[in-house]
Amino acid sequence: MAEAHQAVAFQFTITPEGIDLQLSYQALNQIYLSGVRSWKKRFSRLRNSVIKGVYPASPSSWLFVVIAILATMYMRSDPSMGLIKMIQQHLPLSLHVSLSTQGQTMLSALVFSTLLWLSLILALRFCLKLLLSYHQWMFEQHGRVSNTTKVWVVSHPLLYSYQTSLPHLPVPPIKDTVSRYLKSARPLLTDPEFKRMTELADRFESNLGNRLQRYLKLKALWATNYVSDWWEEYIYLRGRGPIMVNSNYYGMDFLYVTPTPIQAARAGNTITALLLYRRKVNREELKPVRLRTVIPLCAAQCERMFNTTRTPGVETDVLQHWQDSEFVAVYHKGRFFRLWVYTAGRLLSPREIEHQIQRILDDLSPPQPGEEKLGALTAGERVPWFHTREQHFSSGINKRSLDSIERAAFFVTLDDEEQGMSGEDPAGNLDRYAKSLLHGKCYDRWFDKSFSIVIYKNGKSGLNAEHSWADAPTVAHLWEYTLATDAFQLGYTEDGHCKGDVDRSLPSPQRLAWDIPSEAQACSSLAVAQALADDVDCHVFPFREFGKGRIKKLRVSPDAFIQIGLQLAYFRDRGGFCLTYEASMTRLFREGRTETVRSCSNESCAFVRALEMMCHPLIEDQCRRLFKLASERHQNLYRLAMTGDGIDRHLFCLYVVSKYLGVESPFLKEVLSEPWRLSTSQTPVQQMELFDLKNHPDFISLGGGFGPVADDGYGVSYIIVGEDMINFHVSSKHSCGETVSTPSDAFIRV
Questions:
Q1: What is the pLDDT of residues 504-534, one digit of tens each?
Q2: How many C-beta atoms lie closer than 10 Å to residue 88's C-beta?
Q3: Are residues 381 and 467 in the same domain?
Q4: For the segment 35-57, what is each residue's pLDDT rounded down to a tens digit?
Q5: What does each C-alpha distance from 741 to 422, 535, 647, 710 come to in angstroms?
Q6: Among residues 332, 392, 467, 634, which one is catalytic?
Q7: What is the mean predicted confidence (pLDDT) over 349-360?
Q8: Residue 412 and residue 463: Cα distance in Å, rounded?
Q9: Where in or outside the cell is it found (predicted)?
Q10: Region of poorest pLDDT, from 213-217, 283-287, 368-372, 461-465
Q11: How many Å apart are CA 532 and CA 528, to the nearest integer?
Q12: Is the peptide bond prior to 697 cis by the omega test (within 30 degrees of 0)?
């Protein structure tokens, strides 16, 4: 009862002598300190809002302008060319009465200085937007930098300061998009099929396309980004199927190293590192992500990283975000806990969080009826989850417990299995590790949370992320920071425990209470999720034959090299080519998300065919030439996608407009129904300063992966680590007899 007593600030009872008021100093002190922390955050946000509001100037620059104007006036000169006198004449009558002539002049000068300062800010912001709209640097060859680009790199914006200065995503001319589409479709179609598609495209461009384009341009003038809101809603939130495997993705721990084998200790440091990252985001102290260390990327996706959950609906889900949360939700052996990570306004030390986690591990209480597999509701179909939530989790004890999970900073699973590469079957262990992070037991993750952390029994860790609120590079940035902070900043004692002191008077983590009737228990959702999970075939393999270092010596982009290699592997595996999806980001623009690079091109197909027919030296020289053309073509496609001249997002938005207008387009319908049998993505390594691979070569990240997009296709994720290694994650479905994720001769020979 001690915890319950300290949970209230004061209590009173009626006695014969009157009201007996008992104040709890400790509880009031905690409320005071918590309020201080809250007000500090508010002040920090206010300060950052002021700084962002006047960027690229600074608040102190206002004083400089005022002093300069007053100094000029002191020298008997009028820098305003009569505007100060005009402002003075239009001051309210009350100021004319209460202020002297000199005071009126000073006030008018302050008004003029402020207006001049604001005008300069708007002018600088406009210039910065023009500056950030310059993308020619991306198309320049390495080692050759134009004078314009040299002038451009003077800009050094901060995390959120440049948000309003980033350019809006442009709407490409419909003629260019249709032309690029036809060029991308040519290697995948026979001559009669291509002729038919060309006729459909021509009719669309000359008739309905122009009408849809006008609406899209109108939206682009009004909206910050003409793609992102529709992309989030229609691609992610309106999906009614399971988000587990189909949408969520995973991130892995270090390949060779486990910093500590103690589960509670690893959880303590991991949770601490994540909360330190959240503090940096809230205070805007996080270094902005920049291309080539200079060009800023949009940071809007960071805003919903923590305290966010996806809630189900009938037609569409909703993303809910809370400004702050002082606890995390923890799952262990079928029980849910609320773990407070702040006490008296301060963040618990890693050792204290370890202590609290160990309390959960030592708790032997059994799950309540329906509690153990409750998480399967988030793994199955969305509509049943909505109805169950409305009927059984919208009030009372179930709602309070569900709120504790959904409002938590993030979700933590203390898994009772061991994972990792070590053991007699390292390759098979990595595959099982990937499957565990992708779907687990289908009920021991909370797939609706923005991200869930998994800490295994042997100290290995991993992450499962929901996709609608942000894309993989944002989560990868978070996970890189977490791994590096855990291993190199926070560290462990010699016996593997977290560092720091422990306040053993901390109240125990709170068991969440449930009253779940039998009809609300997740049997049907679990069956759907389990069938989906059992069908997934995952394979993870580190490629060590060569890496980025050797590829760059050939003066070829490593990404282009890998993508062409994947085309060759698919051709050898399936005997043909397929529509290939490679994710590219569009965060050079405000609120940008992704664009598709159609990696299967005429040039890549020509190279693959030539290589397969190679039988004498003349063909070998031709293959080298074709490979160079294919890599250059791929790089150009990637640059076009990044700079707003991609194909698929434009066509997607035109399709959405057509649906709003109630008109049918055979061309758009056919384009958007084409299956992506090879879906690929590179996990970027963004914070090289955090990983000292030269001195710590064993601290290599495995990256992460995702499920296949098409039932008869592959999902391929890869991460280029250091100079000599590339990690691949391949997924497919067992139900398709033509796909196998385990490396075949096709991959080995590539």
A1: 889 999 999 999 998 887 688 999 999 999 9
A2: 20
A3: yes
A4: 454 455 456 556 555 555 555 56
A5: 21, 12, 29, 14
A6: 467
A7: 97
A8: 9
A9: Mitochondrion outer membrane
A10: 283-287
A11: 6
A12: no
d(CA 297, CA 592): 9
Tokens of 557: 């982009």
Indicate if 618 and 663 belong to the same structural domain.
yes
For strand 536-543 and strand 704-706, is the pairing parallel, antiparallel, or unpaired? unpaired
CA angle 414, 420, 421 (to 5 degrees): 175
The answer, as to whether pTM is greater than 0.85, is no
> How crowded is the C-beta side of 284, counted as CA atoms within 13 Å?
21
**CA 496 – CA 342 distance, rounded (Å):** 24
In a domain? residue 150: no
* CA–CA distance, 733 with 25 (Å, rounded to integer): 60
CATH of the domain at 579: 3.30.559.10
Q: Which one of 503, 536, 569 terminates a domain?
A: 536
104 touches 89 (CB < 8 A): no
Q: Are strands 725-733 and 308-311 parallel, antiparallel or unpaired?
A: unpaired
Beta-carbon count within 10 A of 104 CB: 18
Let me know whether 189 and 255 are in one domain: no
State the residue range of the domain holding 8.
Answer: 2-54
Peptide bond into 167 cis (omega under 30): no
On whether both 331 and 379 belong to a single domain, the answer is: yes
Is 467 an active-site residue?
yes
Q: Is residue 155 part of a domain?
A: no
Residues 507 and 362 in one domain: yes
Please, which contacts does 312-316 make with residues 24 or more away whose CB atoms are closer than 8 Å?
312/382, 312/383, 312/385, 312/386, 312/389, 312/448, 313/382, 313/386, 314/383, 314/386, 315/238, 316/233, 316/237, 316/238
Chain-centre distance for alpha carbon 748: 32
Q: Give 534-549 as a DSSP string.
A: HHEEEEEEEE-S--HH
Spatial neighbors of 557 by CB under 8 A, at least 6 apart, are: 631, 634, 635
Q: Looking at the chain, how many residues does it have?
A: 750
Element (H, E) at 13: strand 10-15
Q: What pairing do the DSSP bridges indicate for beta strands 461-465 and 451-455?
A: antiparallel
Number of Cβ within 10 Å of residue 98's Cβ equals 10
Let me know: does 512 contact 334? Beta carbons within 8 Å. Answer: no
Q: How far is the C-alpha of 568 from the C-alpha of 561, rounded, in Å?
A: 11
Which ranges of 575-719 does DSSP label H, i.e. alpha helix?
Answer: 602-612, 617-642, 648-661, 666-672
